[in-house]
TrEMBL record:
Gene3D superfamilies: Winged helix-like DNA-binding domain superfamily/Winged helix DNA-binding domain (1.10.10.10)
Cited InterPro entries: ATL_DNA_repair, MethylDNA_cys_MeTrfase_DNA-bd, MethylDNA_cys_MeTrfase_DNAb, WH-like_DNA-bd_sf
Pfam family, one: DNA_binding_1
Protein name: MGMT family protein
CDD domains named in the record: ATase
Highest taxon in the source lineage: Bacteria
Domain Methylated-DNA-[protein]-cysteine S-methyltransferase DNA binding: 7-69
Keyword DNA damage attached: yes
Length: 99
C-alpha cells in the first residue's frame, strides 16, 4: 500500500462506491466524469486503494473482465445481474453515467 489516498484517489473511490449493483464504468468513464486524470491514473488508484470498494464495477471500455480477477468478478456480475455478452460485460446495457 502506498500510504493515504490522494485527493484524486478519494474522488475516484467515492465515485466507484456509488456505481449501482449490476452497472459498470470504464476507467476512462471515471476520469471523464471527474474531469481529471485518465484511464491509467484511475487504474492505478484502483490497483493501490480499490480493494475496499466494488472494484469489479470498474472495467475496460471493451467490457472485458479484470484479467487477474476474472472468476471473482464474474461471480459478482452473476449475483448482481450485470448484463453480459459471453465473457464480457455488455457495455451498452451495463454502463452507468454517474447520474
Amino acid at each position: 500500500m502506498m500510504g493515504e489516498p490522494t485527493e484524486f484517489a478519494e474522488r475516484v473511490l467515492d465515485l466507484v462506491e456509488r456505481i449501482p449493483p449490476g452497472r459498470v464504468m470504464a476507467y476512462g468513464d471515471i476520469a471523464e466524469y471527474l474531469g481529471e486524470g485518465g484511464p491509467r491514473q484511475v487504474g492505478r488508484v484502483m490497483a493501490v486503494w480499490g480493494g475496499g470498494v466494488p472494484w469489479w464495477r470498474v472495467i475496460r471500455a471493451d467490457g472485458s473482465l479484470p484479467m487477474s480477477h476474472v472468476e471473482h468478478a464474474y461471480r459478482h456480475y452473476e449475483a448482481e445481474g450485470t448484463p453480459l455478452r459471453g465473457q464480457r460485460v455488455d457495455m451498452r446495457r451495463a454502463r452507468w453515467d454517474g447520474v
